[in-house]
Please model this.
Amino acid sequence: MTLAKEQDLVLLLGKDGKRFIFRLSPGDELHTHRGFIRHSDIVGQPLGAQVTSHLDYPFYLLRPSIHDLIMSSKRESQIIYPKESGYVLLKMNIVAGSRVIEVGAGSGAMTIALAQGVMPTGRVYSYDRRDDMLGLATKNLSRLDLLEYVDLNHRDVAEGFDETEVDALFMDVREPHLYIAQVREALAGGGFFGALVPTTNQVSALLDALIGERFVDLEACEILLRHYKTVPARLRPEDRMVAHTGYLVFARPVAPEQRPEAE
Amino acid sequence: MTLAKEQDLVLLLGKDGKRFIFRLSPGDELHTHRGFIRHSDIVGQPLGAQVTSHLDYPFYLLRPSIHDLIMSSKRESQIIYPKESGYVLLKMNIVAGSRVIEVGAGSGAMTIALAQGVMPTGRVYSYDRRDDMLGLATKNLSRLDLLEYVDLNHRDVAEGFDETEVDALFMDVREPHLYIAQVREALAGGGFFGALVPTTNQVSALLDALIGERFVDLEACEILLRHYKTVPARLRPEDRMVAHTGYLVFARPVAPEQRPEAE
Amino acid sequence: MTLAKEQDLVLLLGKDGKRFIFRLSPGDELHTHRGFIRHSDIVGQPLGAQVTSHLDYPFYLLRPSIHDLIMSSKRESQIIYPKESGYVLLKMNIVAGSRVIEVGAGSGAMTIALAQGVMPTGRVYSYDRRDDMLGLATKNLSRLDLLEYVDLNHRDVAEGFDETEVDALFMDVREPHLYIAQVREALAGGGFFGALVPTTNQVSALLDALIGERFVDLEACEILLRHYKTVPARLRPEDRMVAHTGYLVFARPVAPEQRPEAE
Amino acid sequence: MTLAKEQDLVLLLGKDGKRFIFRLSPGDELHTHRGFIRHSDIVGQPLGAQVTSHLDYPFYLLRPSIHDLIMSSKRESQIIYPKESGYVLLKMNIVAGSRVIEVGAGSGAMTIALAQGVMPTGRVYSYDRRDDMLGLATKNLSRLDLLEYVDLNHRDVAEGFDETEVDALFMDVREPHLYIAQVREALAGGGFFGALVPTTNQVSALLDALIGERFVDLEACEILLRHYKTVPARLRPEDRMVAHTGYLVFARPVAPEQRPEAE
Model:
C-alpha cells in the first residue's frame, strides 16, 4: 500500500469526473467547485482512498498518468494528443536513452511524452521560436519534474540545430517542408523523422521535400479516437468527437546514391 | 556516424518496401526475394547506407523501431497493434520502473511494448494459459533481448496472481470480466487497469464487472488508423483499412466506501 | 431562367452561411439577423440572384434541397440525418410508387425523405404514440406540401398496423425488437425492413429478434460523415464531427421453413 | 402476396449469402455454385419463398433493391457506392421530375441511382468520352429497364453540354476543375453541382475553380460506412472496411455581382 507523501504529484478525481492535478505541499489548500481540501489531510492517505472536501464531497486520491499530464497541461496552442503521441513514441523508437530533437515545443505536451520516453538516460532537445511558448513549456515540464531531461532552445530552426547524430526528430511547426535540409544535418543516418501537420496541402509539400532529400520508408496517416459512454446496458459512442488534430508523416534519411542506377 | 556491428539487431528495407529484421552474425547470410546478402558485408556499414544483394538489388540498412518489432513479431493470434499499444502506454502510465502484469501474452506483441516502456528498472509479469503462446512470446522477446525484463508465467488467471501492489495490469483475454476480483487483489490502490476486447457485448460485461468491483475513471474507446498513399501530387487514403481490432477499456480501483452514503 | 413566384418554397442563403427557408407570400417580410426583406421584393427574381436586406446585406435566392429541408425541420427529438436517410432510401428500395410504413415519426425528418422518395404515386404510413410528435411532423410536412403523400397515425405499434403487404417498413423507436412479430404481419414477403437504434445492446437485441422471426439478408452498419473546411490552400477536416447518431439494421422476412432440415 | 412472374427482375439469395440478379425468362436456367434452377420453377412463387436448386440447396426469392442493383452492376472502373449516391440524391435534390446532367457515366452505377430518383417524369443526360463505358452503362441500365429515363452522350465535356437550365449536374471525372465554365453554362441559376474526386489535390483544385466561377454554399466531405458482423452475442465491426472511395464536393452557382462591394 502506497501512501501519499509531501511533494508527490497527485490527481484528485471528483465523483463527477472533475480532475485536479497538483503537488502536495502541507501548508496549502486545494480549492474545488465542491469545497476545499487541506493538502495535509491528503498526506499519509493510501492511493485509491477517498478524501472529502470541507463540504463533504468525495474525491479519489490517485497518481496522474502521462495521459493525465498531457491532457491537463496548460495550453496556448493546439496540443498533440495521446492518441498521436503514443503512436509517435513507438513509430520513432523513443526509448530509454534516446536523443531526440523536438521542433515546436508549443505548450510542451509532446515534450512531456518524449521526456517520459527517453528518461532516465536520454535527452530531449526542444526548439521554439516563440519565447512565450518556451516559458509555458518550462512551466509544464517543471511541474512534473521533467526539466532535467530537456534542453529548451529559443531559435528559428531555419538556422539549423546544435545537435547532430540524434536518434529522432519530431516537428510540429507550420511549414516543416522548408527545413528538411536542416533536419538531415541533425539526424543520424537512418534516424527517425516525424511531423504533425494540419492540412493536406502541407502533407503533400512535406512528402515532396522528404522525397527530394532522399528520405525513405514514408508513412502518412491519421488517427481517430472514438470514446464510448460507459453505461453497460446502453453502450454507444459519444455523440461528438474530435474529427481532426493533424496528419502524421514519418520518414527516414538514407545515404545518397553512390552510383547512377535505373530504379 | 554509427556503424552496424556484430549482434546488432538490424532492419534491411528493400526498395520495394520489403522488410527483413535480424541480428548480425558474421557467418550467416540473409536470403531475400531479390538475392542473398552476407551479414559480414553489412557489419561495419553506417546506418542509413545502401547495401546490395548478390543480384545487385538495393536495400537500406536501418535500426528497427518498436513499431517495426511489434509488426514483425511472429504471430499465431491477433496481436495488439501500435495504434492501440502506444495509447495504452500513456494511458496506463507505463514508464521506466513500472511493475506491470499482462494477462494473455499471446504472441508477445504487447509484451514488447510494455517491456520497452518499463526498462531498464521495471518489470513485466506476463501470464498465459497456453504453453504454445508462451513459447512464441519467449521467442519474440528473446530475439529483441527483452527477456530480462519479463517474467512469463503459465497459469489460468482464475487462480489469481503471484504479485501484489503492481502499478498496472493489462488484459487481452476472452472474458476479462470474470477475473476482476483477482485483478483487484493484484493492483495497487488507484492503479491502472486496461483491457482490449473485440465485441461490444464484452465491453458491456466488463464495464459492469468493473463498476461492481468499485473501479472508477472508466474509459471505453476505439482507435482507428488510416494510412494515406504517399504520393504528393495525388494524396489520398489507402483504399482499405483495418476497421476493427478491439475496444479499449480502462479503469482504476479505489477503496471501498467507508460509510453508507447517498450518491 | 426560373423566376421565384408566389407560394414557392425558397431558401435565402446569407453571405455568412445563415439559411432561411420559407414560402413566398407577398404581404410578408423575412426578418433576419441582418435586416428584413419583403417577400414581394423576392417574387419575380431569378433563382441564383442576389437580394439584399434593408440593411443592404446580401443573400442568395435558392431553392431548398431535401437535405436543406431535413436539416431545417423543427425538431424536439434526435432526427435521422441525410447521411443515414439517403442510404436507407437505396437500401430499402424507396422509389416512386412504394408503400412504406414508418414507425416513430418523431419530428418528421425521415418522413420527408420517405415522402419525397415515394411520390407522386406511393404512400407513407407513419405511426407515433406521441401526439406532440405527430403535431410537429404534420407541421414540418405541411410546410413542404408533402402531407398528401403521408398518413399520420396515433398509435402504439404493439397493437399492430392497419396495412399489410407493404414494400418497406422503417423503425426509429426505443425497442424495435419488441415489435418484430407485428412487422412481419405488415411487410410483404421479402419486403424491406430497416431500423435505426442508438446502442449496441439494441443492435444485439434486434438482430436476435430478426433471426428468431426468420428474417434474412441481415446488415448492421454505421455511417460517418466528415466535413472539410472549404479553403483550397489549407484543406483539412473540421475540428469536430458528429461521432454517432445510430446504428442501421436491415433485414428481409422470408417464408417459414416448409420442412425440417439441417442447415 | 405477390407472385413472381415472367420478365420480373429477381434476386436469388443463397443461404450462404451469394446473390444472383436476373430477369425471369421461362426457357432459361440459372446456374449457381450450388446447382441449377429453372426459371419456370420460380415463376408463380410468392416473393420471400424458398426455392431450391437441383442439388436441393436453398435460395430465397426476393426483389432486388437499388442498392443491390448498384452493387451488382458490371464494372470496369471504380463505381460510386450507395453510401455516397444516397447522400448525393438528397443533397442535390434529385426528385421525381428533375433534369440532371451526369458527367462520367462510367459503368452506370450512379446513373442507376439518378434515373431511379428522377423517374417517372424527369431525365438524366449522361456524358462519357469513352465508348466502351457508354456500352457498359447501356447494358447495366437496359437490364433494369431504366434506359428510357436516360440520354447517353459520347462527348468530351470540354466541348460543353447540349442542355441548359438543368436542375443538377454531377461529375465523376479526373479533372472536374477544368470544366467549371461549361458547368455554369448548363446549370440553372442556383442549381445543384456535385462531384466525386479521389485525391485531396483535386478537392483543392475544384474548390478553387468553384470559388473563381462564383459558386456558393460549398461543401466538401467524405462518408465512411462501417459494417458489423450480425452475430447478436458477439457484435463487432468487420475486420476490414473500404477506407476511401472519394471526396464529395457540392456547390451552387449564383449570379455575378452587380456592383463593386467590399465583402
